[in-house]
Amino acid sequence: MTPSSNPSTTYQSDTNTPRLRAAVSNSVNALQGDFLQPNNRVTQARARAVLAQLRKYGSLPLADQPLALEEILLLLQPSLSEWEVGRGDKPSPSELAAFHALTTFGVHMQGTTVPMHTPDRSFASSCGHFYAQSESKSTKPRFDAMMATNDDTARLVHIRSLVTLLRGIAKGFDYGLFAQDLRVLLSPTLSQDQHHRRQSVLLRWGRDFATGAYTSTSS
């Protein structure tokens, strides 16, 4: 699995600047651009293979797939900053966030003909839009279960389920922002400050779901 272009060197001068959001945004934007490129079948086929591999990686925990972490890090444009990269025998919160954002994007793009990375539209807002437009009564309970759980694995399962619903109506969201939020949600809550940051993300997601719903019904 290789990116279609070399990672940017724009950020190399400052190893402390957070790059997760930019790295994920740039990577998925390049992938969807290549995948939706009808005039270059070689590029399109390469992007399709990358997306398929991302979906495959997403079916197993990252800790059980050393190759997956390597491939994800090579795919990021630009690379993560020095402090975002892990040092020990476990993936860092930023590495985990990048992994889950990109593998979720692979699911989101399956069978689509339009971009699923939509800058400045949050994941929760898109879920709220779907809830307002759909006749299904299961959307809000799914979203609420995702919000309420204290188990990271369960939360990720709910997220993938919601993304599958969004794919059905060709509704995208900002994967860079999504990765940034995942980093907070997947980080250990060892301090009051970390707990507060996690709750702040969930509060914003709840607000975005509600505003996405009523904005959709009023438009």
UniProtKB/TrEMBL annotation:
<dbReference type="InterPro" id="IPR013382">
    <property type="entry name" value="CRISPR-assoc_prot_Cse2"/>
</dbReference>
<dbReference type="Pfam" id="PF09485">
    <property type="entry name" value="CRISPR_Cse2"/>
</dbReference>
<dbReference type="InterPro" id="IPR038287">
    <property type="entry name" value="Cse2_sf"/>
</dbReference>
<protein>
    <submittedName>
        <fullName>CRISPR-associated protein Cse2</fullName>
    </submittedName>
</protein>
